[in-house]
């Protein structure tokens, strides 16, 4: 079934997509339906704001990304930025621009993914904008969250001797992308062949349906740990470490042997004949948390499940380096995904 | 001079565009440079959030819109939504996606318009996202503002016998667009001819460099008037009146003879052989304020410069109608700009 969006118009489409949305958060006073949404936060909270603009053909490829997954991921990557400030996401606005190629049902699919993410993370959809584009789909999401005034964590607070920690494992989302890209090339034009992804489910899930590390933020709070600096890993560990070090006026040493990597990632890297550490350091889209804690928290963090100590902060003069398994030092370079750099 | 964006990369471009930005508002605690911006509002304020996504070829045509004007307008239309809630805009995030056609200098032009608007209205740029697109330019702006808790004005509070007021004049922005579209057609391919817009400056200004009605919000506050309902006129007076009436469960009568129209708009409509009232009722992009006040405020509002009483709110059964100069009643129809409706 295909209903043309033109038959509903902008307001009809918005009504249909936002039907039955009920705010869950006390801070949401008025959502969709006026010139602006209305929020109310107690004064002991700081308010966090982050935004993302995703363009078809640059940030996602609809030949292998289902619209529902795309919606889910678009929302979750914004939640991840709020958690990375040690906050809790509360509201999002969703703006879509779509070409005539898309039907009302397509938009419902996309929106169902966004709504599912919002349900899972208890975030309210409070507004947005729906419009047309000449080509492709554009998705712009702004997320608003809150944090206790003295608990906001920036990128600029890392201090010499602080421990560098990372949640989960790295490189899997990137390997998932390689896998999908390969299947796309292999299967081009042969529509009936279903690619076999057995044993690679984790990689696909990491690429297509990432989660934001709400659980880690909760664990840190429960253990009374406030990181000295934190950010989420969207462009690759190398790039993010360099941001933290630059903004904290510090250097760092991270150890190859401590970089957390899943088994499937390792298998896939071998199959693709790629350097595993490079994938983990520069892969991007992991949406794991990278943070630093004072050395006094060593015992606490080393006991926390799902968190790995990968190195430590140094004086700025020492620069940022990776220590390989055989003890060599390599200066970190931000080779992560950069949408505005020259094509390779 | 043309610097390719690829030579700077995402972070280089952001650094260049946001250089020297200093927050003006106390509520802005941390702007560009982390996973999220950090704001802090006192608890007696409600927080307002609005967002817009503008796509090249749909919302703007760079053959006649200078990038600086585009930036200015993109910001101002968001401020307008915050004023329309009886609030004050305080922060914006700016997301841009651009194709290789654009240079660093182009983006500086665009950004200089956004920054100028922010200066004029005392709004802080607190973040955003900069990325590439396969074709064209996409601009997504989210604006955050505040209002006293008991002063937020929604669309749904209009009551029977309330007076309907409008600021400024209507239809000029639409006539400006017609004028630019005509010149574009006439001059296609003839680059050296400069169109003569003498005597039509107001129309062009209304289209290319609209302002948000901060002054009206201030006047209303000074006169101790809190409208019962309000919105800004972006899609045309007819369409907006119908929103207010639908959401307030009311009807309305507006009088053709009271619709405020500028002399240049009238001259242009005649030149184009268009119905002037239709242009004023459905033209869109005026960014004037449409609001209702209790009849007890009649004297106060009728003395306010720049505000016109155009009609009154009725019981819902009476529907929404325009009363023409010769006393006929016409049911209002939303013929305003609707980017998702079928092409004409």
Automatic annotation (TrEMBL), chains A, B:
* Key words, A-Z: ATP-binding, Kinase, Magnesium, Metal-binding, Nucleotide-binding, Thiamine biosynthesis, Transferase
GO MF, any single term: magnesium ion binding
Domain PurM-like N-terminal intervals: 33-145
Keyword Secreted belongs to the record:
no
Which residues make up the binding site for substrate?
59, 285, 337
The residues listed in the UniProt record as binding ATP, with positions renumbered to this chain, are 111, 128-129, 155, 234
Binding sites annotated in the UniProt record for Mg(2+) 3: 35, 81, 232
Q: What class of enzyme is it?
A: transferase
Per UniProt, Mg(2+) 2 binds at: 52, 81
EC number(s) stated in the UniProt entry for this protein: 2.7.4.16
The UniProt annotation places Mg(2+) 5 binding at 235
Question: This protein's superkingdom?
Answer: Bacteria
Q: In which pathway does it act?
A: Cofactor biosynthesis; thiamine diphosphate biosynthesis; thiamine diphosphate from thiamine phosphate: step 1/1
Which residues are Mg(2+) 1-binding? 51-52, 129
**Is Kinase there in the keyword field?**
yes
Q: Where does Mg(2+) 4 bind?
A: 35, 50, 81
Instruction: Give me the reactions it catalyses.
Output: thiamine phosphate + ATP = thiamine diphosphate + ADP
Q: Name one GO biological process term.
A: thiamine biosynthetic process
Q: Which family does it belong to?
A: Belongs to the thiamine-monophosphate kinase family.
What more is known? Answer: Reaction mechanism of ThiL seems to utilize a direct, inline transfer of the gamma-phosphate of ATP to TMP rather than a phosphorylated enzyme intermediate.
* PANTHER family in the cross-refs: THIAMINE-MONOPHOSPHATE KINASE
Q: What does this protein do?
A: Catalyzes the ATP-dependent phosphorylation of thiamine-monophosphate (TMP) to form thiamine-pyrophosphate (TPP), the active form of vitamin B1.
Record-given protein name: Thiamine-monophosphate kinase
């Amino acid at each position: 079934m295909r209903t043309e969006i033109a038959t509903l118009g902008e307001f009809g489409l918005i009504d249909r997509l936002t039907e039955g949305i009920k705010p869950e958060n006390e801070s949401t006073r008025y959502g969709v339906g006026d010139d602006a949404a209305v929020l109310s936060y107690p004064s002991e909270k700081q308010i966090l704001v982050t935004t993302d603009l995703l363009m078809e053909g640059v940030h996602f490829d609809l030949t292998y990304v289902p619209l529902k997954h795309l919606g889910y991921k678009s929302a979750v990557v914004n939640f991840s930025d709020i958690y990375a400030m040690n906050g809790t996401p509360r509201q999002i606005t969703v703006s879509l621009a779509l070409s005539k190629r898309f039907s009302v049902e397509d938009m419902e699919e996309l929106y169902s993914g966004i709504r599912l993410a919002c349900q899972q993370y208890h975030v309210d959809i409070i507004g947005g904008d729906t419009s047309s584009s000449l080509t492709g789909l554009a998705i712009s999401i702004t997320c608003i969250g809150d944090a206790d005034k003295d608990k906001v964590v920036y990128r600029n607070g890392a201090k010499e001797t602080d421990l560098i920690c990372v949640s989960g494992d790295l490189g899997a989302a990137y390997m998932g992308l390689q896998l999908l890209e390969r299947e796309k090339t292999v299967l081009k034009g042969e529509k009936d062949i279903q690619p076999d992804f057995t044993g690679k489910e984790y990689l696909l899930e990491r690429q297509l349906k990432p989660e934001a590390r709400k659980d880690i933020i909760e664990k840190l709070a429960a253990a009374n740990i406030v990181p000295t600096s934190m950010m989420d890993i969207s462009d690759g560990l190398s790039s993010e470490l360099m941001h933290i070090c630059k903004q904290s006026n510090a250097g760092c040493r991270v150890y190859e042997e401590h970089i957390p990597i899943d088994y499937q990632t390792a298998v896939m890297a071998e199959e693709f004949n790629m350097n595993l550490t490079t994938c983990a350091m520069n892969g991007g889209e992991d949406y794991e948390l990278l943070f630093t804690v004072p050395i006094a928290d060593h015992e606490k963090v080393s006991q926390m499940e799902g968190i790995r100590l990968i190195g430590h902060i140094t004086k700025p003069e020492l620069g940022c380096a990776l220590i390989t398994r055989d003890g060599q030092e390599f200066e970190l370079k931000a080779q992560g995904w950069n949408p505005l750099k020259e094509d390779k």
